[in-house]
Amino acid sequence: QVQLVESGGGLVQPGGSLRLSCAASGRPFSIYVMGWYRQDPGKQRELVAQITNGGSTNYADTVKGRFTISRDNVKNTVYLQMNSLKPEDTAVYYCNLNVLFGASRNNFWGQGTQVTVSS
Q1: Whose CB among 33, 59, 73, 113 lies 3.0–4.6 Å from 6's, allowing a Cys bridge?
Q2: Using CA atoms, how far apart are residues 103 and 113, in angstroms rounded to an integer?
Q3: How does pLDDT run across 82-117, given as a tens digit for each residue?
Q4: Burial class (CB in 10 A: 0-12, 13-18, 19+), 47
């Protein structure tokens, strides 16, 4: 019903920056929470940042002050600006959309994009 396509991952040195993008397509939606999660091999997927259709944001303590989530409602795209990157930020980053269609809440995931922070 909704497809999410991520881009922007890659290899960056510690202290560097990357911007991830997540473009949504398919069924139109207006009431949602959209966010980024990340997962290292052998670890649980963890929340990085979220943004609601109203513009409210939520961040993991580990990224506060370094990462910024934003959205472009016209383009149906969410961005994650990552600054002052650390080796421990290395993970596969997944875009997530939690959306209300009528009375039904639906959850969608992107395919993931690798972020590697290393010198």
Answers
A1: 113
A2: 31
A3: 999 999 999 999 999 999 888 888 999 999 999 999
A4: middle
